[in-house]
User: Fold this.
Amino acid sequence: MGHSHRPCVFCAVNHDDFRIEYMDDEIAIFHDRSPSAVFHLQAVPRAHIKNINALDASHLPLLRNLESHARAVLAQPSFQAEFKPNSKIYLGFHIPPLNSVHHLHMHVLVTPFKFTRKFKYTTDVWLMPLAKLVARLEAGQAATDAGAE
Assistant:
């Protein structure tokens, strides 16, 4: 018996259904629908990549592109005006199998967090910081100890 395949919501990023801050042929950056912090954006590749376990060193330029454009969005005066004096920026990816959407997405969070969500984004159990992921891939390691999923 067959079953219908649900299309990937992040493969279908568009201006009608998402509050997009930046989009080009390779990446899109948009507001999270259920923000966990004062600012919570998602930075995604337009091409479908399942999760961080599908990444290797060949994806480093993509990761750097996601980071540079996310930081450029956050540097806009409209965002900067809303930052708190002690705001911190977190950039990271959920660690499989803790993905709610099975399309690679980098969380771009600016504190303060919503109280009930802080744990989810500040521990290596739930979130792989971008810098740690890049270091692992540069060293020729898998993104996680679990390897490809």
